[in-house]
Amino acid sequence: MDKTYKIGDKTFVLDEEKAVRAYQEKMVINGRQSEAFNLLPLKYQWAYDLYRKMKANHWEPEDVPMQKDLEQWKSESDLSDNERWIIMMGIGYFSAAEGIVGDNIQHVVRELVTAPELKLVLGRHAHEENIHADSLLYMISSLGINPHECEAMFEQIDTILRKNEFVCRVSKSLRRDMDLTQTVNKQELAKNIFVFGQCMEGTQFYGLFGMVLSLARQNKFPGIGQMFRYTLRDESNHIELFRNLFRVLIEENPDIWTADFKQELYDLMKEAVELEKEFIRDCLPVNAVGLSADEFCSYIDYISDRRLNGIGLDVLHPGLENPFPWLAETIDVKKEQNFFEGRVTEYQKSSSLAEVSDDEL
Ligand code: FE
Ligand code: MN
Question: Which of 147, 153, 134, 111 is nearest to 58 (CA)?
């Protein structure tokens, strides 16, 4: 049914069939190409919901006080060399990694997906990577660390280089004009989404998350700990976003999901886990107070199983239990209503004012 508007002596006809077709042609890939950002009607409601959840979690690094961290950093007695080294490795690794994730979203994933609501949430994801990169800059300048040393960390620490090389391998070959009607190219994109979401953000970030939050639990580096908790909360949304994106991509393109392809995913996850374990051993060459490299390695096995399971693959270590139940509580932020205080709540309030209620959509 067409709808006709008569305004003065002009007549405007809206073709409903065209609108319906535009909706049906929304796809993760190979959908309708349009410069018009036609968000409505939404086909991927989850993507829009996630976008709103992400913006409600907005935070800014400068709102986190760093005085206590600086006092500890300067003091001779408060910290061991190993604890300082964990922070150096954390800053060194994430300074490069956040940028790599953001770059891959902007230049690969957001360019190749076609549905506007997916582009919307990916734009927010990319911005959150900017916030994370900025938070590292803020940590470096607050502690007075020589920025050249951080550059040197990701140029010269072999285990950091190898983690970065692993993810860039599945990013560099993907181009904007790639023919995504070919199964092999669709699989390249699916692999990229799997590696970045489940292997990197979902697994390789968790060694350091665990170490830094474990230090914060002992009242060491409270400011950095706070920023890592905010980052971790953002990362859980990124993992969910890439998990959904992956699953819908496979649903719409079942030709991707072959036995060989699944095997490739297992191999990639195994490689990611190996790299992470070597990295953890560089972070904890000696067992610092309450932190053992072995426990962190088994934690990585546990986390990687959760990621495989999340996209419908079998786990590699059936029955393995989480060696750090306290960390699961920190990660499952829904349980901790009062955990994120201060400015974050204010951002939530101001953003909820501008929100459209669900029933209006
Ligand atoms: Fe990040
Ligand atoms: Mn992320």
Answer: 134
The residue type found at 186 is K
- Quote the ligand 2 centre to 120 CA distance (angstroms): 15
Q: Choose among 65, 60, 69: nearest CA to 215.
A: 69
Catalytic (active site) residue 347: no
32-80 pLDDT per residue, tens: 988 888 899 999 999 999 999 999 999 999 999 999 999 999 998 889 9
Give yes or no for a contact between 195 and 201, defined as CB atoms under 8 angstroms apart: no
Question: Do residues 228 and 234 lie in contact, with contact meaning Cβ atoms separated by under 8 Å?
Answer: no
Beta bridge partners of 5: 12
- Quote the ligand 1 centre to 228 CA distance (angstroms): 10
Selecting among 48, 138, 299, 302, the annotated active-site residue is 138
Q: Which three-class secondary structure string do you get for 319-347?
A: CCCCCCHHHHHHHCHHHCCCCCCCHHHHH
Task: Look up the CATH architecture of domain 41-331.
Answer: Orthogonal Bundle (1.10)
